[in-house]
Amino acid sequence: MTAKTFALVVICLAWALHRYVRIPRSLEWRPSPPSDSATMKAVLYTEHGDTSVLRVHQDAPQPQLQPHQILVHVYASSINPCDYKNRRNEVPSWVVPKPKIPGADVAGVVVAVGSGVDVERVRPFRVGDRVAAMLPLLHSRWGAAASYVAVDANLVAHVGPRVSLRDAAALPLVALTTLQALESVTVSQSPTEAPRKRTILVQAGAGGVGSFAIQYAKHVLQMRVIATASSEKAEFLRSIGCDQVVDYRNEPFEEVVHNVDVVLDPVSWLYEDRTLASEVLRPGGHYLNIVGSDWAFSGTEQGNGPRSLWNWIKAKTFGPFKYSFVVVEPNGIQLQAVMDLLESATIRAVVDRTFALDDVREAYEYLEKGHATGKVVLVHEKEEVESGSATVAEES
Ligand SMILES: NC(=O)c1ccc[n+]([C@@H]2O[C@H](COP(=O)([O-])OP(=O)(O)OC[C@H]3O[C@@H](n4cnc5c(N)ncnc54)[C@H](OP(=O)(O)O)[C@@H]3O)[C@@H](O)[C@H]2O)c1
């Protein structure tokens, strides 16, 4: 290869990287050092494995508040599949430093505000405020299953008076996943396009992501919503805004769903090929792969991997549809929009079950079966967590 060709290849690669590969913002967040003296209750694991590696400690170190951070007394947190995937798999320690506190979703009360946090902002954070946040997923040993979290102020949102801290804790990660996935769809809508009700297929509609995405697509984006679920959950899905439910156990979705504008797919390891090889998406439609993998520990937790990458390259090169990978990132501005939707009761938090923090193993064992309806919440402080008059959680 001549020097000229080499330079051309480097320039093309740099352009492709810049154009298509977003460096995760998680790499920008620097986790706090542990405090020398202050301790807290926290769930920790020091090695990867099943739920037996989770231990509740009464005197784990607290995170040391940094100038740009807010220290939150956590009243409730919720759990997500990414927590147990990071725990079960031997991921490198720079991704999951140990001892690790699992969990990303918190709601609680501000107990300290760092000296560098902007107190002049429109809605400043003050001690005593009720807040929620999604914590960074990578790079940090600090997670949600603890009495305190120190979190960058720009990742935090206020929780309105009508919303319980249990409901606020249920939503951050799944809601941000939905907003970030549908953002690309929303912005690609041409202003000159004739108004038309667009249709979305939400796979795994009864799950944490699905139960939020159905409501957001229906009540905020005004879309027609189709979702997959087992038959006993159909009525529930209709109650949160679903127009059509496909019983995935008895009815192949690709035989009954055609020409939708968007597919949001948390079951991509099973459904991606079936979706792309059929007429589920209309030409020009948008496939959103949220990189789902099996709930059961099957050794194939990377989902479709190379096949997905190939599908993505094909779609980028030839069409006929758009294809995006979505990996959620914390975002305080988007989370505030979600908390405001909860406050106005435009959407509701679907909480399947709550567990005490001490019962964290049972909580994960329940979620890891893959049949939760909505979210599983850990209650850290029982007395205060249910206050807020707009609690509309579902109990299974
Ligand atoms: N990339 C990202 O940033 C991102 C963000 C969030 C989540 N995710 C991934 O997305 C996936 C889903 O997350 P989640 O929080 O929604 O999980 P979840 O709450 O555990 O989902 C459980 C739901 O999935 C349904 N389900 C199971 N198998 C199904 C199938 N074959 N077809 C249709 N529905 C099925 C179940 O319904 P039935 O009981 O009726 O079977 C249950 O209601 C996970 O793999 C997660 O890691 C990725």
Automatic annotation (TrEMBL):
Gene3D superfamilies: Medium-chain alcohol dehydrogenases, catalytic domain (3.90.180.10), NAD(P)-binding Rossmann-like Domain (3.40.50.720)
Top-rank taxon, per record: Eukaryota
Annotated Gene Ontology cellular component terms: mitochondrion
Entry's Gene Ontology molecular function annotations: oxidoreductase activity
Domain Enoyl reductase (ER) residues, every copy: 49-378
Signal peptide positions on this chain: 1-16
SMART domains the record matches: PKS_ER
Entry keywords, A to Z: Signal
Protein name as catalogued: Enoyl reductase (ER) domain-containing protein
